[in-house]
Design goal:
112 residues; mainly alpha; 2 domains; 3 helices; 4% strand
């Protein structure tokens, strides 16, 4: 059964602008609550529900990422220089972090 043009459900139907007013009021209340408690709520979510935390992050990320190919216009020498610079940077980072040497384990037994 379809409503005919001009027919309203109930006496007068929903007042003009009521939906927008409700939406605006809800969003304003949500923003106020987030200003007061948002950072703490995010922290609680991250600690107590890390899976849900990551789902929330993923839901607000853009669906597509555009990556520019910065190496497409480089010649072989420039690529070699870039690779060497990246290797040097990685080496410097490893030295700055100074991780302890891993323990050697064979067949579940220490080899000390």
């Amino acid at each position: 059964m379809r409503f005919e043009y001009g027919n309203t459900f109930g006496k007068n139907g929903r007042p003009r602008g009521a939906k927008n007013k409700l939406h605006r009021s809800f969003v304003e209340a949500l923003a106020k609550d987030f200003d007061e408690h948002g950072e703490g709520a995010i922290r609680v979510c991250r600690v107590e529900e890390p899976t849900r935390y990551l789902q929330i992050i993923a839901s607000i990320l853009p669906k597509e990422f555009l990556f520019e190919n910065v190496t497409g216009d480089m010649d072989d020498e420039q690529l070699d220089d870039l690779i060497a610079a990246l290797r040097q940077r990685a080496l410097e980072h490893r030295q700055a972090v100074a991780l302890p040497a891993p323990e050697r384990v064979t067949n579940g037994h220490d080899c000390a």
